[in-house]
Write a structure and sequence with these properties.
The structure is a homodimer.
Chain A (H helix, E strand, L loop, with lengths): L2 H9 L15 E3 L5 E11 L10 H18 L3 E11 L5 H18 L2 E9 L5 E11 L14 E5 L4 H9 L9 H12 L8 H7 L2 E5 L3 H12 L1 E6 L19 H6 L5 E6 L4 H10 L4 E9 L4 E5 L2 E2 L13
Parallel strand pairs in A: 3-4, 8-11
Antiparallel strand pairs in A: 2-5, 3-5, 6-9, 6-10, 7-9, 8-10, 11-12
Helix pairs in contact in A: 2-3, 4-5, 6-9
Chain lengths: ~325, ~325
């Protein structure tokens, strides 16, 4: 199938405003005058960020959602995305159909559309690069660097589930999990849930935020380093995926939950005066948020305490493809 | 080297406005209220769009420039870009240094900067995906679809040189070329020259335009199809790279020049009343432009005439990686 036919049959139905039916050299974005654009670009590759044999619709969703997660953490509402797909000979019509179905359902879910992109042939490895574009009021992007002493650290959802899902898929975790729990953890790894609906609350109330993609410990370090503060987190306050307790001692540990990848939750620093507003906005968005620690002056890293002692980790950040 | 060190040592010096030092989840663009943004995303892969062993600085420039070429064809001035690099174990410090030097010199040349991106590990194949962002006055993007009967077709520069450069690198073309001509053709393949300085002339005067990346014949078909017109081109008027004549009959042909890839010239449809203005603007930008044909009503493809007869081609479009 040549590229024109590929676009015509599979990708054109995904094209939205500014995409010109994917028939042009480029797409366009016409932002209203009171908005900034937030742009982010993450690439995922077979055997590194997803496993050979992962369902194509989950590969598509993962590629898209890791980018939407970045937008949410900056307080931006997603607008659209560009896609570059390096496809192998194994990407037959059924694969492409499922891949595009995965994108289509997410376009509806997150109210976005495809603006442009590229497809190339790759002999041996599927690679997906997505650039996502979001908007927010001018000058209001939430940086990693704005946390101040006295802010409270809030985390959305739960962590550890995705790392446990990967451990299960790689046969490293061996508990006799209930089938439902197993499926839910694997889904957590394959299909992150970007906190798009929390973006407005982050934009209005957070002094700093980032998304947890490489493990809570290492990502909290990044927030602390960018802000020039010490992030103090109480491990007992960190909400873990409920299915994890069955795995602890069976190939998976609390340390792995705190340093595993692909959680895609948001860690936000909320000034004391904004706490009420943030919690109310999160509740309206139906997203659980939990206070897990606080910001102290001085330092440039995170400290995770358990029973009053700082936890030590062999690696604080998850490196994709290292397991 | 972990990703933080990689960013710190190699990519941070490339970061410009909106990139936040590449220390955040995303970058931002704050366009002025009278501008639209044009966005394009092309991916290139080792062994498909460039050859293993190509100098890393030319790989970087090619990845960037194929995108800048799209912007120029739409009449947009480049603003910045996002980069995703899948690097192999062979991408050592010297490789990365040269790759980033290639980007740095082009940033200066085209007055752009890096806004954001991603680096991932790839076991076996360097892949570079770039999203370029340009700006132009609101509503003024030049589409492929605007050509009207009576318009004159103009081509920038010359074509065929890049295809000949690839044929030389692949030992398919065997003429006893002068060393200078050989080097110039190979450079043409490795380092396209996007017609950035022609963008304003295109924006002001063209009814339709696109960049020639997959061969003049096939790309003229695309303009014709999008506009619902017949593009009639006289082969004798098409300016060819001057070094080509030495190769004709020695493994390279006029047909290959008209259907080879990677020319990155601009084909523009200019209404008769705009011809003077377009030629003057091109001359001010110091870019040669040549009238190569005209637009006729009806049809949806290009016709390339030689001695009054339509030329036949085994393939009208170049497929990257097919040679």
């Amino acid at each position: 199938m040549d590229e024109l036919e590929l676009i015509d049959r599979f990708f054109r139905p995904l094209a939205g405003e500014g995409a010109l039916g994917l028939l042009d050299d480029a797409g366009f974005v016409s932002p209203s005058s009171d908005r900034d654009l937030v742009v982010t670009k993450d690439m995922i590759a077979e055997g590194v960020h997803f496993l050979p044999g992962d369902p194509p619709e989950t590969v598509a969703r993962k590629a898209l959602r890791v980018n939407l997660s970045d937008l949410a953490a900056k307080g931006a509402k997603p607008l659209g995305y560009l896609l570059a797909l390096a496809q192998t000979p194994g990407c037959d019509e059924a694969w492409l159909r499922a891949f595009c179905d995965g994108l289509a359902s997410d376009q509806e879910r997150y109210r976005i559309s495809l603006i442009g992109g590229d497809t190339i042939a790759s002999p041996d490895r599927v690679t997906v690069s997505i650039t996502a574009i979001g908007t927010l009021p001018k000058g209001r992007m939430v940086h990693r660097s704005g946390a101040k002493a006295g802010d409270i650290l809030y985390l959305s959802g739960t962590i550890g589930g995705s790392g446990a899902g990967l451990a299960i898929l790689q046969n490293r975790a061996d508990a006799d999990l209930l089938a439902d729990d197993r499926a839910q953890l694997v889904l957590r790894y394959r299909e992150p849930q970007p906190r798009t609906d929390l973006a407005e609350a982050v934009c209005r109330h957070a002094s700093a935020a980032l998304d947890i993609s490489d493990g809570l410990a290492g990502d909290a370090d990044k927030l602390a380093s960018a802000s020039g503060i010490r992030a103090v987190i109480e491990a007992q306050n960190v909400p873990l995926d409920p299915a994890l307790s069955q795995l602890f001692g069976h190939g998976f540990s609390l340390e792995e939950a705190l340093t595993g990848g692909d959680d895609y939750e948001i860690l936000a620093a909320i000034p004391p005066g904004e706490e009420g507003g943030f919690k109310e906005a999160a509740a309206r968005a139906d997203i659980p948020v939990t206070a897990i620690g606080c910001v102290e002056a001085g330092g440039d890293r995170a400290v995770i305490l358990k029973d009053g002692q700082e936890m030590a980790f062999s690696h604080r950040s998850f490196v994709h493809g290292s397991h």
